[in-house]
Amino acid sequence: xxxxxxxxxxxxxxxxxxxxxxxxxxxxxxxxxxxxxxVKEASVTLANGGIRISNVxxxxxxxxxxxxxxxxxTAVIICPGGGYxxxxxxxxxxxxxxxxxxxxxxxxxxxxxxxxxxxxxxxxTAPLLDAQQALxxxxxxxxxxxxxxxxIGLMGFSAGGHLASTAGTHFAQPVDxxxxxxxxxxxxxxxxxxxxxxxxxxxxxxxxxxxxxxxALAAQLQLYSNELQVTxxxxxxxxxxxxxxxxxxxxxxxxxxxxxxxxxxPAEMHLYPEGGHGFGLHNQTTQDDWTERLRNWLAANGWLxx
Length: 306
Hints:
With about 300 residues, this protein is an alpha/beta fold.
């Protein structure tokens, strides 16, 4: 059990020497909601050096421990985007984790399963199952990771933002009913140009079709339109989007913010006139740095206090 061994290293104080890239399996033994198949994980390196992963069969968490002299006890699990077809694991994962480390936040990059009928019994629930297990695992091993179990946030980009907002609105009834009583509610959400709604007017069709199929029932479309699932228990949320996003309309963030406001859930939103979709850490059209806005928000809520 690699993640148990790593937890032991942490308790002994030797694991921090590993810095990052310690990869932990998300599950012990058989991965739930999986079936035998010929599906094999694929990784592609783009011309610009970016890494895209697809056909995930074995979900993992890659650990980026905050430096001991900066560590605040807060943790963030990151869900990269990619339309539920692939994962932009560096651009919206590893690079973001390193930035969070600079703030004293321990980060975990989630390599979650992408919907696949060949390797999953129910492709619509596989990503959420993995996100909830990640929250459960980090919370249960909080002492080993030297984090506060009540200061664990979930961050998502694009379709990863849909996954994070799903986890932030569907925690009352976890997908895996046999996994124990550990809470799978994130303590806060950070959604970057997120897919939120599966309505015809707002949906990113690729994400919707990949998760639910082209002939999804109206009830499923409503269930996964997360602006309709917000309650007073939805975690405080930080949102970032560009007005000229032609892939995921900015109205996705606006309707989620509106629902949060309606239910009196604290929320902060930063909108840029330009930037398009998928800008990751750096919106090249502005000198403003949204990660500094994030740092301010985290600090204002006490999550950067040691």
